Amino acid sequence: MNIRIGYGVDVHRxxxxxPLVVGGIEIPxxxxxxxxxxxxxxxxxxxxxxxxxxxxRDIGYHFSDTDQKFKGIDSKILLAEVMKLIEAKGYSVINxxxxxxxxxxxMNPHIPEMQKVIAGxxxxxxxxxxxxxxxxxxxxxxxxxxxxxxxxxxxxHKS
Length: 159
Ligand code: MG
Fold this sequence. Notes:
The protein is α+β, with helices and mostly antiparallel strands. The protein has helices spanning 41-53, 59-62, 75-88, 111-122, 140-143, and strands at 2-16, 20-22, 25-27, 31-33, 92-101, 129-134, 147-158.
């Protein structure tokens, strides 16, 4: 079995009065993430992990942030497209491990729903989608509530 590892990282600026979409769901919040798409930092990190594992460049290469076609797009669509790209190379997902870094609001209550959404898109069991959340201890831009960050690692395989 051919197993490959991938990792991805993404950052978005936070601003008041816009939706906060993380892990494919909208989280009730006074602040949201700024981006060309729906700015879903977790799905973007997962996209880059999968693309990296299959050596298929990165999310910006496939979905340019200057292309009007992707303006405001639901990142679940981008992740579904990434799955098509890795499947075209004969790969499927084994598991994902990820971390969201955000000072507030708390992500933990929303993680089971995120796992469900992501598992569906990746065509794996929910047990194969790990999502962790942490604050940035009030320091630097993340801790000051100015930005949100996510890391993701994945294994994919070709049988
Ligand atoms: Mg992004």
